[in-house]
Amino acid sequence: MEAFDVIVVGGGHAGAEAAHAAARMGMSVGLFSINLDTIGRMPCSPSIGGLAKSHLVKEIDAMGGIMAEVADETAIHYRVLNTKKGPAVRATRTQNDRRLYEMGIKRRLERFEGIHLRQARVDSVVVKGSAVGGIIDHTGNFYQARAVIITAGTFLSGTIHLGDRSIPAGRAGEEGAYELAKSLRSLGLKTGRHKTGTPPRLLRDSIDFSVMARQNTDEDYMPLSFSAPRNDLPKLACYLTRTTGLTHEIIRKNIELSPLYSGAIKGLPARYCPSLEDKVMKFGDRDGHQVIIEPEGINTDEVYASGLGNSMPVELQWEIVRSVPGLENAEILRPAYAIEYDFIYPTQLFPSLETRVVGGLYLAGQVNGTSGYEEAGAQGMVAGINAALKLRGEDPFVPARSEAYAGVMVDDLTTRGTTEPYRMFTSRAEYRLMLRETNALFRLGDHALRLGLIDGQRYARIRHVLDEIRRTKEELSRTSVYVAGDRFSKKPGVDKAEKITAEKLLRRPGITITNLVEAGIIKPLDPEAGAEVEVEVKYDGYIKRQLKDIERLKGLEKKLIPPDIDYKAIPGLSNELKERLEKVRPRNLSQASRIEGMTPAGLQALSIGLRLINP
User: Fold this and answer.
1) What pTM value is reported for the model?
2) Domains: count for the chain
3) What is the per-residue pLDDT for 614?
């Protein structure tokens, strides 16, 4: 019998980060995957990052994770999004070589001391008393563990839908996890049903790119990782086209053949990432929908047709694809499909991502009702850290909403829950100006060092950048500049010049930190430091206001709620609120304030009730 401190079930993005985090904290980790060749797989888009998602990737990197490092190592296209908007919503997105990415993740796990990869299908979780004891695989073999992290993705009772065909599978060509789904339900965990999908893959040489808009890689970007050097892989272009009236006509005429509309699919899809059938049927007034042809890698002619995701019969998919400009002669290498799978309602979890029903059992990724590689990776990181902390006998690590997007996500899931696939948006974070993708290192560096996720050398580099930010801001405040119109200089040689500080000059629209460096007003500085200086100077007033809001939030967080409190005994709470509070059992007034249906009057009643309990 093999025994591990922690067993991770699933080798996707959540599983990889969970195993890596727990091992970095000194645990022996068994990572179980149905197929070891699929560790780190990108089953949908071959990309990392994007709006709000890059913030999560940067946070994983700040906590010593591997997603950002491998993304930079295998990037074949960079795109910086929202460049004309404020710093809170700017984001970096990479296109990656799919196979190199998978190999990069697997290589790091294989070579990390303390991680042991095992190819087996896990069929059940073994519980001893009220705590987890290990798992049993498909051969009946028992593996002992003091903590188990389930990161099953779309594999729990997975079913692929293609037209009128329903195929049991976890992903195309991979078996699902049906016994494990039954095992989790037998433990008392309530499950729901979600639906997601993936578009067709096409042969590059069969596409006419001359009628499409070319989108080259951005040259001016900041890598996702603090440690990975820029790679020397070829940078490939993406191409943009649109669906047509003919595309929409084909779908409308045959909509009854879609399992989404025939009733075959019961699971809820994501509203923000609709299939092509939904786009056509729900947004019929539009003359077209964007399609992006994305490269899958440098050593393959297979490309990803983003925007053409559907679950229509394969023969109709050929008509749909060939109705799009540039794809008139396209060959489908892999058809699009929809997949339906079980998820666990996340309000059954503590904020540490440990289940309430079984001690030492953690859930991370799509199994918690989320979607996206980045959301999965961040949850895996949190679960891996907390599994290790539990085994050490230490308090859980739960990042606050004011210090990490990972904290926002975990709080949303465990406090409010979700019925549709949850995706991270900047709008979900009330303190998003403080949670920029450029400052994740500085927000979480102290936590990472304390937990043993990064070493002293890396922390010293972080402190060096912070010192550079401080020194540069001081230099800007005491350096005089002579300004006349759009001209400025450190010397008083400009006619009718106004004398101001370099700090005030940087606050002006259109002036960047790069302008000041190029003009010789300040010395060249580290890119991470430069980005932070510019934001902190330009948005100083807004930042100070958010810091005051965060201090008020911390006041609510300090008002702890006893875990065994009887909500029925608190006067002034509605029966509905009592039921929700009983279900979620918030740890403090801050979390209680975010429970669905909570009102100012309800929060006041709860606050008064707590004072009566603890005068």
Assistant:
1) 0.92
2) 4
3) 66
Residues 45 and 191 in one domain: yes
pLDDT exceeding 70 applies to what percent of the chain?
99
Q: What is the DSSP string of 307-338?
A: T------HHHHHHHHHTSTT-TT--EEE--EE
Across the beta sheet with 91-96, what order do the strands follow?
47-49, 91-96, 75-81
Q: Is the pLDDT of residue 424 over 90?
A: yes
Residues 322 and 347 in one domain: no
| CA-closest candidate to residue 97, choices 296, 306, 292, 334 | 296
Please say if the pLDDT value at position 501 is more than 60: yes
The beta strand positions in 352-422, using DSSP E, are: 361-363
Contact by Cβ (8 Å): 346, 418: yes
CA distances from 435 to 425, 444, 522 (A): 12, 11, 27
Distances (CA, A) of 45 to 64, 128, 201, 294, 469: 24, 40, 10, 8, 36
> What span, in angstroms and rounded, lies between the C-alpha atoms of 334 and 571?
60
Helix (H, G, I), strand (E, B) or coil at 502: helix
pLDDT digits (tens, 9 = 90+) for 545-593: 888 888 877 787 888 888 888 888 888 888 888 888 888 888 888 888 8
Same domain, 282 and 345: no
Kindly state the helix (H) or strand (E) to which residue 344 belongs, with its residue range: strand 337-344
Cα distance between residue 77 and residue 233, in whole Å: 9
- In the three-class reduction of DSSP (H, G, I as helix; E, B as strand; rest coil), residue 298 is classed as coil
Q: Which of 408, 426, 451 is the last residue of a domain?
A: 451
- What spatial distance separates the first Cα and last Cα of the chain, rounded to whole Å? 53
The token duo for 330 is 């396209």
Do residue 334 and residue 361 come from a single domain? no
Q: Using CA atoms, how far apart are residues 322 and 328, in angstroms rounded to an integer?
A: 4
- Residue 27 above 90 pLDDT? yes
Same domain, 126 and 259: no
Euclidean distance between CA atoms 334 and 313, whole angstroms: 13
DSSP structure class, residue 137: E
Angle, CA 75 vertex, CA 32 and CA 17 arms, to 5°: 25
Cα separation, 471 vs 465, in Å, equals 10
Judgement on whether residues 332 and 346 belong to the same structural domain of the protein:
no
SS3 92: strand
Which burial class, exposed, middle or buried, applies to 450 when counting CB atoms under 10 A from its CB (0-12, 13-18, 19+)? exposed
**DSSP class per residue in 139-184:** TS-EEEEEEEEE--TT-BT-EEEETTEEEE-SBTTB--BHHHHHHH
How far apart are alpha carbons 330 and 326 in whole angstroms?
Answer: 8
269 & 377 share domain: no
CA–CA separation, 592 vs 37, rounded Å?
43
Closest CA to 100 of 334, 294, 300: 300
- Asked if the structure places residue 248 within a domain, the reply is yes
Domain that holds residue 537: 468-543
DSSP conformation letters of 450-491 = HHTSS-HHHHHHHHHHHHHHHHHHHHHHH-EEEEETTEEESS
DSSP states along 204-249: GGG--GGGSEEEPPPSS---S-SSPPPP-SPPPPEEEEE--HHHHH
Task: Decide if 578 is inside a domain.
Answer: yes
Q: Which residues pair with 137 in a beta bridge?
A: 122
DSSP 15-30: HHHHHHHHHHTT--EE
21 CB-contact burial (10 Å; exposed 0-12 / middle 13-18 / buried 19+) = buried
